[in-house]
Amino acid sequence: MALDAGVMSVTLEFAKDLKDSDWFGKQDPYCIIRVGGQTFRTRTAVDGGRNPVWNETFRFNIINENSVDVEIKDEDVGKDDVIGTATFSLAKARESGTDRIQAGVVSKKSRKQRGFLSIALSWEPNKALKSGGAHAAAAPMPQQHYQQAPPAMVYAAAPAPAYYAMAPPPPPAAYYAAPPPAAAYYPAAAYPAAPMAYPPQPYPAGAVPVQGHW
């Protein structure tokens, strides 16, 4: 019996016990999910290591597609390494409306199962999609739900600072040079004028004047 067309909501919840592709630190896994020609990418679970959590929902237009391919990669500087791949069916969800799956993750190198991917499916029939043919199936729904993403923070713009007119500074004080002190004039000492010549002194009695000195 042909299944009805509709919209499949695929929620990639988490992965467990993945192969660790990093030698140092923890790997940063993300998923690329493909249904027919529709492809989506999850956010990167930074430091998710072997047990990353995404909890992201993607909506796919489904007509004849009945399987989903998921590639898990480790985000690195340069080239992203492939951790593993998983494939699961949409048949049960299209019949019953919902389904929960633990899809085994196969390592790229060893081709052995290394952990699993937890998925939740929800189906919404939509017969209108069938009339659109292949074009409806190729157009992905733009709506994506990031359940773990924190709500956007709204920051109110800070009010413009109030600028107040500042009073002009007072004029600089006028400084005048002090006048020099008055010169001190002292009166000249009153000394008697020195005599220009001394009168000859009398010789004592009995003294004979020396020749040439008189």
TrEMBL record:
InterPro entries (alphabetical): C2_dom, C2_domain_sf, Ingression_C2_domain
Residues annotated as domain C2: 1-103
Matching Pfam families: C2 (PF00168)
Record Gene3D superfamilies: C2 domain
Protein name: C2 domain-containing protein
